[in-house]
């Protein structure tokens, strides 16, 4: 089985760390490739960043058609997730939806702990899109930017643990979701310190793609995730042309 993990930002150090987390979660025999798009923001910390990143994620998905058994979009806003499902004939899983679904199997309510407060509305939108509003006890931010996560990992752990404890004690959370792909390496450390499940979305998404492929199912192509209608594209990535210019099969 081959899975492509896409870090939608363009910071190679974070892509490398996400790849390590994904490979650690993967079953024996699963091959993981982890890439960043050729263009886009260095970090994703708002709706404009997310839109730019989504555009380039689609370029990666379209450009690798037929090469992988599944895709993981490794940013907690799940940028371009539904659009990527239109383009791909194999499962595409976002790390936010993966973490939310898995957490809901082991906890009645959960909280997301993330980076700077301005990302909280973006993650709230992801909760709504995933139909998990009633499960989400809270979304808590820290002063950390995305690119500061790895600069001082001990500081990152302290800040994340402080907010996670508040989510458990004050908000009623029974599990903690790490609200940024760059936080993946600290999941087990936090889980040991908190005594509740702590979920990294990248690991969750890899396991879900493996399960979907192993079970022999993929994205429904009935209505919502049908391939795009054929039409002319202007100044768009060449990778998208085969999808948009295909000939409709006669009925």
From TrEMBL:
Organism in which the protein naturally occurs: Baekduia soli
Reaction catalyzed: D-5-benzylhydantoin = L-5-benzylhydantoin; a D-5-monosubstituted hydantoin = a L-5-monosubstituted hydantoin
EC number: 5.1.99.5
One GO MF term attached to the UniProt entry: amino-acid racemase activity
Record-given protein name: Hydantoin racemase
Record-linked PANTHER family: PROTEIN DCG1
Family: Belongs to the HyuE racemase family.
Gene3D superfamilies attached to this UniProt entry: 3.40.50.12500
InterPro entries to which the protein is assigned, alphabetical: Asp/Glu/hydantoin_racemase, Hydantoin_racemase-like, Iso_Racemase_Enz_sf
